[in-house]
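Good morning C.,

I know you're traveling, so I'll keep this short. The sequence:
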Amino acid sequence: MSEKIVRILGQEPHLYWKSADTSVGRSDAVMPDASARIGTVTIPTYELGTDDINPILDRRLNPYPYTQQNHKTGVRVEKEYEAVVLENEYIRLTVIPSLGGRLYSAVDKRIGREFLYRNPVIRPRMIGTRGAWFAGGMEFNFPISHSPTTMDRVNYRIHHGPDGSASVTFGNIERISGMNWKVELKLYPGKTYMEQKVSLYNPAPRESRFYFWTNTAVEYDKSVKLIYPFDWCINFDTQYVKWPYYKQMDCRNPKEIPYAYETFGKLLTQDFFGAYNVDQDHGIVHHADRKKVKGAKFFIWGNDSNAEAWNRCLTEGDSQYIEIQSGPFESQMVYKFLKPHQELAWSEYWYPVSGMGGGFKYASKELAVNFKRSTEGVSFCLSATENLRDCELIFTVNGATERRKADFSPLQLSVMEFEVEGSFHLHEIKLDVYCGDRHIAAIGERNEYTDEYPDTDIYEDSRVNMLNQDPDKTLKHVQWRESLGLTAEAFDLYRVNLQEHPTCTLTMNRLGNLYLKSMQYERAADCFRKVLAYDNRNSQARFYLGVTEKERGHPQTARRLFIDIAADAEYYRASLIELIKLNLLFGYGREARLLCEQLGPADAYARFLGSISRRKDLRAHLHHDNQSDEWMSDEYGLAEQYLQQRSNEAKETFVAFTGGDESVIVAVALEYLEMGLRDDASELLQLIRTPGLQAQLIFASCQADGNERITNMLTVLQQQSLDYVFPQDPRTMRLLMELESADGSGRADYLLGMFLYAAGDREAGLARYRSSYDKGLRYTALLHSLGYIYLNVLQEPSTAEKYLSEDAAVNGTANTETLVYLDKLFAAAGDLYKRTELVPLMEQARNRALVLERLVEIYMQTGQEDKAFHILENEEFENWEGRETSGATYRNAILHRVRKEMEQGDYERARYWIDRADVYPEGLHYGPHSGTPLSDIKYYKGLVLAGLGQEHAALEQFREGYHELYREEIGSTEKSRSYSMLCLEQLNKRESIG
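The tokens, ready to paste straight into the viewer:
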């Protein structure tokens, strides 16, 4: 045996901190405790403007009721952020709660460098589901992509554990469905890994679609290698390919990938993956149970001009990044449904490695291992994440076994060599490492390689088996469409499927759920009753029928249905929780408490109900909960703690955790209100720092009964601002329905219309919108929404113009999207005069980036080229991911000038302009994709060169333009194909002349 130890302890870079809490752990521990502290960090930030005032309707993934964050000011400021710092002797992490809980910085103190990509700036671009998104660090995405809270504050709390660990738990009650997500990042003393504990919970009696992905950015240069142990993968064009090759590219080497590209692993063969920078000799390891965390993805912008443009506009100083991602589902086209009161939880581990000579071939939670042939046999490099004493290594090859003893430390790399007699292949070796009774490494224990492609009918992945519509798989297809948030489309397709298969209970249950979510209770009940008529043991239908009866005001009927669900049924636990809540509503505290004991301490919500039940059971009033601090890192637990204690300390803890945010506290208060606990709900609502219409409406409903209650709620409805009021909870909607007949202002109709339309009931939503308009409401978001629906959904441009024009007349430039839709409408009609009339409003638009391309087009068409090029060369454009339109706008303007100069016979001037066609101003944030068709540029450049007498150069341009048709990597369009054929005509013409 030969063994050498390489010391890797180094100096760390300096970070500047203002600490508000210098708390540390126990002083009597053998190993120094990890610490968690709250401080501030200053980061250069390009600020966002105000959120868009319109609701987000008919967008993919349906992020309603969140606002659209599509307004960038372009102003760069030094911004101070509240931050949480977790630290032990090896690792320092910096988390920023106000940026969605982003893990902004992760420093390996042993070598003094970041092991994630730490962006030097916060520079949002239009990449997220709501718009703004920024690159860097580790982002946690739930329930859709990118996380709706990626640019918003999330609730958080720090914790010191009795084992010396330190952690921060953050998350939120997300607003789309009321689901609760939490991520805990934890450091342990003496360990180099960060544990990421994820907990997802649905407290609602309705299922909700979701996915969860952790998006981790690592620094990229051309020496980065990807270490992904899977045989097959599915790429962006929906086809399975053999890893690691795609179109002659070895995807383990991202430098070989020219364009934006992503891939997902199919059936991971190991519990790890990661990335390694060979030149800088450091990398990152991810480890998790592959049964719970099936998903492994990477994404790269590529290495072409488009990639350079995106990296420039997201970062500063020419820095680049690549994303490695993990999640419980196989790809990001898979969205599933979290059932009522279902919880999903798992752990993942991340840690840095360095000095391993090119990467690692194996990783467990305790050890990362690289190995290669040596002169005498096999050389192993082992990097430990903790002190491991008296380990036994068992090396096996060619039927021979050798055992050795070794100690491992996070401060040292161990390089160990084993001699081998005879020939062998590296894939034939085995190495097992034991530390006491822990089996901490098992290299070569199995071979899961297969030549067979996965069967898309039996293995899961929506990209492959859902995108191609098969008439025999209608139900499967429509469920996938529903999971993507395309609710209105799902409504229609379920009805079609039911016409073809009238006894399909799966379809009836799914359609009933959509009716329930859109408050069409009669139709929902009809669906569930039909299911039970065909299948009387269907607990799903019985449970949802109970929920339907409860929501439409028949709680006793609901209670009987929940009682009727047997203990072996799929929805038994959910029915137990709903039964507890109804017992509290009826004042049956003792029965509620006894039922809570059946739930056990499984999750925070169960403990929340148990605490309320004990508080409301008069015979248990002396009982005080001894609740764990872990449960108290939760909105419901902290609210209940406050209501139990009524102390200033408990109140301040709850307000600090939630930030006094209306959407969070309203969600908790509604839970109490649903159980008939009006005083508790009122107490919580008074803790909101800036109460809006929804909070004040609910509060008013709690303070009186009868006519006085209706009068109070009407006063709130008519006096409070409608700005950014996007209702989503059906309990709030029922309050508005109470006011509908008495409200002559149209406000109740407007809010109900928005809710119903977003829930997929477009017909009912539009009817409420029109009723609101007929009652005289001229609110800008109402007028814009009506215009949008008539233009994009109903295809009635004249009616759309009426509403949009009225919005522009009444509200001026307050609503930039109204101006955009008006211009689209006039452009489609070819009405340049009306487009020109919009220019003064566009020039004053609040969100100027939305109208820049339209202004350029109008100025070019009206002969005001100087104004158009002033905008192109001096202003900042905004490309949305996947829609890089600024480059096309620039090229069209250039070609307009080229044609004009050619018509005037000035080919020298035309040459000046055509040479600028691929020199894009920096403010466009654009570089052509390697697959961008440019046959139009080639065609006109050929004409210009021919006009200047440069026939040979002209022929070369025409050839290139024509040959675009046969270049596989170029995504041709109808326009580009027509220009390719024009290039061919020029070639044939010149050949016939020649």
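Safe travels,
E.
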